[in-house]
Amino acid sequence: MADFQANYFNKKPLFRKNVLPNVAEDVLSLEDMDNLLNLEVVRFPYIKVNLNGTGVPEPGYTKDIKVQGQTVSGVVDPEKLHSLYRAGGTITWASVNQIVPKVRDFTREINRAMRVRTDAVAFLTPAEKKGYPVHHDGVDLFIIQLSGSKKWRLWNIADERRGESASYSEAQLGAPVIEESLKPGDVLYLPYGTPHATEAEGEPSLHLSVMMRPRMWNDLLQESVTRILDQSKFDEYPPLSEESSEAAFQKMTELVEELSSQLRSMDIGEEWERYRESGKKLPGSSTSSVFADSHRIAQLSHATAVVRTNTPYETTQLEDGRVQVLIAGLKFAVSKELGGRLDGIAAGETTSLEKLMPGSDEERGTKMARSLVRAGIFEEAKGA
Ligand SMILES: [Fe+2]
Predict the structure, then answer these.
(1) pLDDT over threshold 90, residue 283
(2) DSSP assignment letter at 132
(3) pTM (2 d.p.)
């Protein structure tokens, strides 16, 4: 990973042979594609068809169906789609990671390693189809061959990167730096702006194109600024309908000062961790398991070993002496003693409610253990 980050990421294309030996089985196979289609729930624009170089209009392969008396339009019709494929059409299946759990698990690994947004598109090309002429795309790509083979030619990125997408003439590019027939399990990396051309070979080809959208400094710093600006002191409406006034200028000067002073005193290490954390939660990689968790939480007791997460929460002193805990919209009250003990636990530390509420009965401890795990302040210790 370090070698990839230092030498290839965002710099030059890379080819790796047979690094994912069981990729079709583990990620996406032709059978999976057939099964998904046969569910008859996939809608346009997830699936698109290209025949003889032009996009087939959606009604050519969709139909309307009735679900519980309601019409659902634009549902892909397996029969129509299969006959377009037999006629030589290329099928592209966008955001397949949103639909197939195995693909999402796979793209999530890239998301977690690189902290980038990932999105997978499956390309199914019939045998002997003409490929695409030389062009580049405006995103970083991992190409994973799943089935069949496809010939790829790649050139290094031009010294000056040209916009979002562009086409090239081969004469101007010279010899490609990578020229390979991709076989199942082979992987290509193309930083954005890498000129490439493809050609189908003697058998149908299925590949997955995982697009990565790295966040720029611009995106990250905006996160920091937005977080500061979310404070209520920046909420007032300035009187823009009026001519400028001394008072308005004064207010603006104060707020600009406030913003820049908060930016200057920002804990850089903490902010960096926040970027890394938010990078794990980008769309298309969700791992929530609320249904399964709710069953597991119901089995916890006061004695279960629990680990403090690094999820922050806020506390407020209540009039009756207890402490109110506020976390991600959830609110509940705990005793003053428990509130104090919670504050003393570092992220990663293991404990149990039996230890945190000494002397209290099992029922209360168990109820509190479930509340704190449900709220995300603790999680069950691994192997507990
Ligand atoms: Fe492309």
Answers:
(1) no
(2) P
(3) 0.76
